[in-house]
Specification:
309 residues; alpha+beta; HIT family, subunit A; three-stranded mixed beta sheet; 30% helix; binds zinc ion
């Protein structure tokens, strides 16, 4: 068990004893943020140079093999402490934060980033850490350690996802008792939403959705970003199916390219730009293009909804 206050105190304690983390958290006070309206969705853009490491991460098999895994206990700095959670996770402070309170929650063993069988864990974490949004980046949807299973979590009030979903039209496509699986296709970003007060039931609804999403050739699971957070009545899981890792304009070599590598935080409403020129250039059209290229179309999402058994 863990709770938000315990984790908040843990983050403060780590910042007090870990200069690198302290410096990066302090730098968040100076990041620039701008607000965009993308067809009614409230999107924030954050200029965060410390995230260069993640946005430019090489996640191909050879690069992964050549580096020491930063989520394995033996490679973590001595100063990085953790809170054990359940029988196989450890809650850590993320030393390269985007959120004012940012956690990484790896499995205690070095095992592939795959979501199957772990959604109940995710929902339980989101229930216990009720001030936090717990999120999962698929191995080719923004995870910078696709070889080591991990969730992340950040203070929920930072993201705009919940605000954007408040006014959205939810079409319930499956139900289990009080728990529902709904399709939201009224925003530029098409998503599925599971509302439940029971992690096991929510997990079963997720498995039905998971089975309906096509797995691209060469992948081990459907491409997805997933976010979970507490609501006044239970916990909400937002599943964002993806069809592409990075936008067509990803890169740094030409003037047309931008260093934006969207993951759950971006899909949750806060797009991260590590370079100042990209921060200046990003506008509503850029975000619309990202949703069009990386997320599914109305037709594609409807087909999945039709295939949910
Ligand atoms: Zn590892």
């Amino acid at each position: 068990m863990a709770n938000s206050n315990q984790v908040n105190e843990f983050i403060s304690a780590q910042i007090a004893e870990w200069p690198q983390a302290a410096g990066n958290f302090a730098a968040l006070n100076d990041v620039k943020v701008k607000d965009l309206d993308v067809d009614g969705m409230h999107i924030k853009v954050q200029f965060n140079p410390a995230r260069m490491v993640s946005s430019a991460a090489k996640v191909d098999a050879a690069s992964l093999k050549a580096r020491k895994c930063f989520l394995c206990a033996e490679n973590r700095p001595d100063v990085q402490r953790g809170i054990e959670w359940g029988d196989k996770y450890i809650i850590l402070v993320n030393p390269f934060p985007i959120f004012p309170r940012h956690l990484t929650i790896p499995d205690t063993s070095h095992t592939d980033q795959l979501i199957q069988g772990r959604v109940a864990d995710m929902l339980r974490l989101a229930q216990e850490l009720d001030q936090y949004t717990v999120f999962y980046n698929g191995p080719r949807c923004g995870a910078s350690a696709p070889d080591h299973m991990h969730f992340q979590a950040g203070n929920s009030d930072f993201l705009t996802l919940d605000e954007n979903l408040q006014g959205a039209d939810m079409q319930v496509i499956a139900q289990d008792g009080e728990s529902t699986l709904a399709l939201v296709d009224s925003m530029p970003m098409k998503v599925f939403v599971i509302d439940t007060d029971n992690p096991e039931t929510g997990s079963k609804l997720f498995e039905r959705l998971y089975a309906a999403i096509p797995v691209p050739e060469g992948e081990k699971e459907p491409m997805m970003n997933i976010l979970a957070y507490s609501t006044p009545v239970g916990v909400r899981l937002v599943v964002i199916p993806r069809k592409r890792h990075r936008p067509s304009f990803y890169g740094t070599e030409t003037d047309e390219q931008m260093l934006i590598s969207p993951a759950s935080v971006d899909m949750g409403g806060v797009f991260i730009t590590p370079r100042p020129q990209d921060f200046e250039r990003v506008n509503a059209d850029t975000i619309r293009t990202i949703f069009d290229e990386l997320c599914l179309s109305k037709e594609e999402i409807d087909e999945i909804a039709n295939n949910v058994k």
